[in-house]
Amino acid sequence: MSKPKSQPIFDERDFPVSVARLAIMQGLGVEIEELKGKPIIAVASSQTDMNPGHMHLRGLAERVKEGVHAAGGIPFEFNVPAPCDGFTEGNEGMRFVLPQRELIADMVETYVRSMLFDGIVLIASCDKIIPGMIMAAARLDLPTIMLTGGPGAFAIRFSPRSTGSIFHKDYPDLLDKLATATCATCGSCELMGTANTMQCLAEAMGLTIPGSANVPAYFSDKLLFARRAGKRVVDMVEEGLSARKILGEKSMENALMVDLAIGGSTNSALHLPAIAHELGLRLPLSRFNDFNRRIPTLCSIAPNGPHGTQDLYRAGGVPAVMKMFADDLHLDCTNVMGQSLADVVEAAEVRDGEVIRERDNPYFPEGGTVALFGNLAPEGAVVKQSAVADEMQRFSGPARVFESEADCLAALREGSLNEGEVAVIRNEGPKGGPGMPETLAVTMGLELHGFARVALITDGRFSGATSGPCIGHVSPEAAVGGPIAALRDGDEISIDIPGRLLEVRLGEEEIASRLAEREPPHRDVAPGFMRRYVKLVSSAARGAVLE
Predict the structure, then answer these.
(1) CA distance readout (Å), 532 to 212, 373, 546
(2) What's the pLDDT tens digit per position in 339-395?
(3) Please, are residues 211 and 200 in contact by the beta-carbon 8 Å criterion?
C-alpha cells in the first residue's frame, strides 16, 4: 500500500540509525513488518475530561482507529488542548482561549511533520479547536478528514415545560431560561454558537463525510461515521486526495455562504480568514458583504430563533441547507469522498421546512453576519444582523466609554448605564486584551437588566450565543491606535446595519488630535506565550493570525 510520507522511517540507507528507529518502534507492540507495508495514520483528537463538548471523543477515536485498521492502515492517536469559552467567561482565562487556536494549529502541524504520518483524521467539537486543526491541515496538505464531535442537548429538551424551543427568550421563568443553556449531554452547546458553526463549515468546505457534521454527539450514527472516517482516510492516501485538493478559494466561499445561510457565529469572521491565510488566500471582511445580500438566513436556530442544531440534523443537515441555494454555490468543489458538491446537493433532502426554509421564505432576508465600515472601523467590524431586532437595525446614541469589560460590568451593577446609550468597550482586541476575549458577560447583563435600547461596540469579540445590537471586532483596535481609542463619553455614534456603516460624528482632524494625546492603559501580560502572541498577532480583520 502507499506510504508517501512514512516510507523514510523504514529506509535502511542511513544505517545504523535506522536500526535505532526500529528498535524504538518495537516498544509499540506493533508488527514492524506490518508497519513497513501499511500507511501510518494520525488520529488527532481534542478529547478532554474538562468540557462536555469533548468528553466523548475518546470513544470516537477508538472507532476511527477500528476503521483505519479495517482499511489496511495503522493508526496512532495524539491529543491537543480543548479550551472552552464557557468555562472562561468573566475571568482571566478568557484571554488565553483564542490564542490557543494558533497553538493547536502549530501542535498538529509540527507533530505530524516530525512523525511522518501519511494521513490524518481530525476529531474535535468546539470553537477554536476545529479551525486550528483545519489551519494545520492546510499547511500539511496531507490526506485529511474531519470528524466533528456533534452537538449535545440542552436540559430544556427534557423539561415538561418545554415548548419545543431552546431559545431563552421563549421562556419567562428563570429556571427554564437556565435550562436553555444547561448542557444535559456530551457534545457541543446546542445553539448555533461558534462550535456548531464551525462543525457546519467544516462540512461545507468538504472536509467531512457528507451529512455527518450535525449528527448528535450521543447518537449511534456518530460512531458509524467515525469508523467510516477511519476507513476513508486510508483510501484517500491511496488516491492521493490531499487537503489542498479540497480546500481552496471556491470551498472557502462555499463555507462563507453556508455560514450566512445558517446564521452562524460572528467568530467565523475570525476563523474563515485565518484558514484562508494558511491557504495563501485573502478573505477580507468585505467578502461577507459581497454575499450577505444574496444569501438569506434560512435557519431559525438559536440565537436567531427557536430551533437547535439537533433540529438542523433532523431536517437534513448541511447538505439540505446547501440545496436551498445550490445555484450560488461552487458545485464543482470536491469533498473527502471524492464526490462533487453537485452530487451531494442532488442527493440532499429537506425534511422540515420550518427549520430549513425555502429561499423565497427565509427567516431573515439577508445573511446573518454583516461587516460594518466607517470612520470608527476603517478595517471593519462585525455584527450578527439576524439576531438584531428590527427597531435596532439603525440606531444612534451617545457613547459611554469603558476601558475594559470589567468597567462596563461595574457600571451595570451600579445601575449607571442608561437606555439610549452606546456602550463602548475598548482595549479588548487581539493585542490589547490581550487575546481578544469574549464579552458575553456584558451582553447577558444588558439582557438581565432589561435594556431594550442599548447598543454595544467593542474591539473584542462576542460569543456565538450573543443576540442584539452587539458589534465586535472593531478594527483597528484601540491598542494600535484605532479610532475607537479616540472616543469620549457623549460622542454621537451612528449604527446603520442595512447601510453597513459604523461612524462617530467626529472629523478626521479631531480623531487624529485625540489619538495623539492618548496614552494607552497599561495591562499586564502573563510571561510566556502571550507575550510572543501580542508581538505577532494581526488585526481581527485579518483573522487575528500570527504574522
Answers:
(1) 37, 30, 9
(2) 999 999 999 999 999 999 999 999 999 999 999 999 999 999 999 998 888 899 999
(3) no
Which residues are designated catalytic? 463
Residue 128 pLDDT: 95
Q: Which residues of the chain have pLDDT under 50?
A: none
Burial degree of 537 (CB within 10 A; 0-12, 13-18, 19+) = buried
Cis peptide before 434 (omega within 30 of 0): yes
For residue 462 the three cell numbers come to 462576542
Q: What is the DSSP string of 2-35?
A: --TTTGGGG-GGGTTHHHHHHHHHGGGT--HHHH
pLDDT reported for residue 441? 81
Domain ranges of the chain: 7-33, 38-152+187-347, 369-542
User: Helix, strand, or coil here: 476?
Assistant: coil
Q: Which strands make up the sheet holding 74-79, listed edge to edge?
A: 74-79, 40-45, 119-124, 144-148
Q: Is 63 helix (H, G, I), strand (E, B) or coil?
A: helix
CA 278 to centroid of chain Cα atoms: 16
DSSP 337: T
For position 344, what pLDDT does the model report?
98
With beta carbons less than 8 A apart as the criterion, state whether 487 and 504 touch. Answer: yes
Pick 369-542's CATH classification: 3.20.190.10, 3.50.30.80, 3.40.50.10400, 3.20.20.190: 3.50.30.80
CATH number for the domain whose boundaries are 38-152+187-347: 3.40.50.2300
Q: What is the CA radius of gyration of the chain?
A: 24
Tens-digit pLDDT profile for residues 398-417: 999 999 999 999 999 999 99
Q: In this structure, how many other beta carbons lie within 10 angstroms of the beta carbon of residue 518?
A: 12
In this predicted structure, what is the pLDDT of residue 463? 72
| Alpha carbon separation from 157 to 177, 185, 283 (Å, rounded) | 12, 11, 38
Instruction: For residue 448, count CB atoms less than 10 angstroms from its CB and return exposed for 0-12, middle for 13-18, buried for 19 or more.
Output: exposed
pTM for the complete prediction? 0.96
Q: Rounded distance, CA 444 to CA 462, Å?
A: 11
504: left (phi over 0), alpha (psi -120 to 50) or beta: beta
Q: Distances from the Cα of 434 to the Cαs of 82, 364, 395, 534, in angstroms?
A: 19, 35, 29, 7
Provide the 3-class DSSP secondary structure of residue 76.
strand
